[in-house]
Design brief:
By secondary structure, the chain is mainly alpha-helical. Strands 1-2-3 form a three-stranded parallel β-sheet, with helices on one face. It has a two-stranded parallel ribbon with strand order 4-5. Helix 1 links the parallel strand 1 and strand 2. Helix 11 crosses helix 13. It is globular. It binds adenosine monophosphate and tryptophan (TRP). The site of tryptophan (TRP) has 13 residues, from strand 1 and helix 7.
């Protein structure tokens, strides 16, 4: 039976990418029931790899915790906790720092993106970030990690670190870690630019649907979401696996993104959705996507807001 581990950074602006790519998967795993233990961690030590306002960080830790519970992760049957409250994460990270090779970290694309042009001025923590992630997972000998697609490379590094530790010491101490990256929303893109990932740090509120958005926010953001001048594609846009063909995803990233989000929310295949909307313009799809977001997301946001106000809880 798998041990599950996943983490979300408390950096505010939780959005539907975080929910559909990761948090909802935690709930699916819980409902499937065949796991030994599941740890869902609010990774505040990861958050401080870039500057955080201490007061806002405290608030964001509560918001992230609330998002797990509001989305349906049962705190009685899962372990929901704050990373910095367990010192083992930082301690094992040091040992793994001595296992991981600099060359491995140099290949990490997320560091390159986050550090930008001036990587000499990035924190050492930002550089070593994936090693702390390895420590998170391996501290509990977890085997299955539900995450969005952007974490794939980090999880490959986690496997490399675990293997090298086992090899160097001639032991079989750390288990094999497998990513769980499934569904149509493993990489939700910005509503303003289909080539950019939906992100907490995008300065445009119109780029993302936040979990705490109300109906009007959702309606406005979907109305303004970028599309293209063609009608919605037909079944010929799909490959044999039912995914968008590469050329379609490249040529029509915004259209593909809205359909992916809708499929994931409705738990329907692209074939089922395209059979309904093929050849139509985007207005009908946008209306139904808005309704689906309001039905699925607004209750989570309301529950988050309720919990955050109830400080005793
Ligand atoms: P973070 O906010 O970076 O800590 O991410 C928390 C979880 O959400 C991770 O599993 C990410 O892979 C996932 N995630 C973040 N952004 C997206 C996105 N745009 N689409 C899908 N999953 C995402
Ligand atoms: N790096 C992950 C992210 O930004 C968060 C994270 C930290 C994580 N530790 C983890 C995810 C361990 C899975 C397992 O999305």
């Amino acid at each position: 039976m798998d041990h599950i581990f996943s983490g979300v950074q408390p950096t505010g602006n939780l959005h539907i990418g975080n929910y559909l790519g990761a948090i909802r998967k935690f709930v699916d795993i819980q409902n499937r029931g065949n796991v030994a233990k599941a740890y869902y961690c609010v990774v505040d030590l990861h958050a401080i790899t870039v500057w955080q306002d201490p007061k806002k960080l405290k608030k964001d830790i509560l918001e992230t915790t609330a998002s797990f519970i509001a989305a349906g992760v049962d705190p009685k049957n899962n372990i929901i906790f704050n990373q910095s409250s367990v010192s083992a994460h930082a301690e094992l990270a040091w040992i793994l720092n001595c296992i991981c090779r600099i060359g491995w970290l140099n290949r990490m694309t997320q560091f390159k993106e986050k550090a930008g042009k001036n990587k000499e001025r990035a924190s050492v923590g930002l550089y070593a970030y994936p090693i702390l992630m390895a420590s998170d997972i391996l501290s509990y000998k977890s085997t299955l990690v539900p995450v969005g697609d952007d974490q794939k490379q980090h999880l490959e590094l986690v496997r490399d670190v675990a293997n090298k530790f086992n090899f160097d010491y001639g032991v079989n101490f750390f288990p094999e870690v497998k990513p769980l990256i499934i569904g149509d929303a493993t990489r939700v893109m910005s509503l303003k630019n289909g080539n950019k990932k939906m992100s907490k740090s995008d300065e445009s509120q119109y780029s993302r649907i936040n979990l705490t958005d109300d109906k009007d926010d959702i309606r406005n953001k979907i109305k303004k979401a970028k599309t293209d001048s063609h009608n919605i594609m037909g079944l010929e846009a799909l490959d044999d696996n039912g995914d968008f063909k590469a050329e379609v995803a490249i040529k029509r990233p915004e259209a593909a993104n809205l359909i992916n989000i809708f499929c994931e929310l409705e738990k329907k295949s692209k074939k089922e959705i395209l059979e309904i909307y093929a050849g139509k313009n985007f207005s009908n799809l946008k209306e139904n996507l808005t309704d689906s977001l309001i039905t699925n997301i607004v209750p989570i946001g309301n529950e988050m807001k309720r919990m955050i106000k109830d400080s005793l809880y």
